[in-house]
Amino acid sequence: MGTPRIRHIAICTKDPASTAAFYEAAFGVKVVDSSETEEYRVVFCTDGSISIALLDFKSDEAAAKFNVDGGASFVGIHHMGFMVEDTNQMLDSLQSMDVEPINERTPKASEGVHFEAKIRDPNGIVIDIARTWPGLEVAQVT
């Protein structure tokens, strides 16, 4: 298994579109995807190496469901993600360190392009483990 690489940062904001426009103008990142559900709005930006998810949770309940301490009003960095070659292999390795995922592992975890396993580091910070994010190529972490 290659070395995992930091490739994703999620930021909670009350205005994902304006925040994306700022990052585009200031740093040249490109918006590559966006969506809205009953629970949240999200805009994905990238510089080609790092994916930035700009999240706006619509309720405290939705924020709690996605492990946001501080509820829907929280603004700031929410979590970061490591890109790996094989999600299941990484989860097995973490499990040997007594680190359990905080979301359900699926049979296709290694195959799903947008599957993210979530763990907490020793400080309680959420860490995503995934093969890729919108705007990034499938993991090349060797």
Report on the structure:
- By secondary structure, this protein is an alpha/beta fold.
- Strands 2-3-4-1-5-7-6 form a seven-stranded mixed β-sheet.
- The protein contains three helices and seven strands.
Compose a concise summary of this entry.
The protein has 142 residues and is of the alpha/beta class. The protein contains 3 helices and 7 strands; from the N terminus they run βαβββαβαββ.
How far apart are the termini?
8 Å
Please outline the major beta sheet: 7 strands, mixed
- Percentage of residues in DSSP E strands: 25-35%
Average of the residue pLDDT scores: 84
- The largest beta-sheet arranges its strands as 2-3-4-1-5-7-6
Shape: globular
- The DSSP helix count reads 3
Structural class: alpha/beta
Low-confidence stretches: none
The SSE order reads EHEEEHEHEE
Backbone CA Rg: 15 Å
Number of strands: 7
User: What share of the residues lie within helices?
Assistant: 10-25%
